Every structure is written in structure tokens, then in C-alpha cells.
């Protein structure tokens, strides 16, 4: 496991600095390409540009998945809290939270875990 800081952190050099740039979820593909060219003297080919774009999309996808999971966990916590503090059923708690009916089954299943 490697813990990477933000780009420009002077304690990272060489491969660790390169990985920090490539795996950063905060940098756009064009920024990564520019850094790879200027700081690491890596010539950008069409194939390499495509690979950098894929890596950026992957990191954004992972980030978005984490956000969705966090929201789901937050809603489940809210449902459980309402059920416990108010003595409501799961359906009553979801109605109070204005959870759309088509989404309610996923939360009912989540409450069973």
C-alpha cells in the first residue's frame, strides 16, 4: 500500500511523484498530460492520452460510487433513527424523508443487513 500526497509535495520524487499525478482524482486529464510531458518528459501519443483519460474516468467513477454509497448509508441511518425515536415503521420513516416509492425497496433491503 502506498500513501500518496498531493502533487507538488516535495517529499515525493521519482515513481511516487509520477503515481501521485496519475492517480490524482483532483487533476483533469489535460493537467495530467501537461505534467507528464513537462516534469517527466513523457511524450504523449494518442494511445497514452487515451490511457490517461481512462484512468481519470476510472477515478471519477470510483469517487461517484463512494458518494452514492455514502448517501445511501446516510439515508439508512436517518430511517433507523426515525424508526427508533418516533416508533415509526420503515415505510412511515421513508415517507417522512420523501424517499421516492421506486427507491424504497433498496432501503428496506438495506435495513435487513
- Estimate what percentage of residues fall within beta strands: under 5%
Largest sheet: none
Distance between the termini: 30 Å
Write down the Rg: 22 Å
Q: Got a strand count?
A: 0
Structural class, by secondary structure, is mainly alpha
Task: Name the shape in a single word.
Answer: elongated
- Give the helix proportion (percent range): over 70%
Q: Order of helices and strands, N to C?
A: HHHHH
Given as residue ranges, the uncertain stretches (5+ residues, pLDDT < 50) are: none
Provide mean pLDDT, rounded: 85
Number of helices: 5
Task: Write up what this structure looks like.
With 113 residues, the chain is mainly alpha-helical. It contains five helices and no strands. The protein has helices spanning 14-23, 29-40, 46-86, 90-96, 101-111. The protein is elongated and about 65 Å long. The two termini are 30 Å apart. The mean pLDDT is 85. It comes from Eubacterium plexicaudatum ASF492. This is Transposase (putative) YhgA-like domain-containing protein.
Compact overview of the structure:
This is Transposase (putative) YhgA-like domain-containing protein. With 113 residues, this protein is an all-alpha fold.
Topology diagram in text:
Layout: H1 14-23, H2 29-40, H3 46-86, H4 90-96, H5 101-111
Protein name: Transposase (putative) YhgA-like domain-containing protein
Keywords:
single chain; elongated; 113 residues; Transposase (putative) YhgA-like domain-containing protein; 0% strand
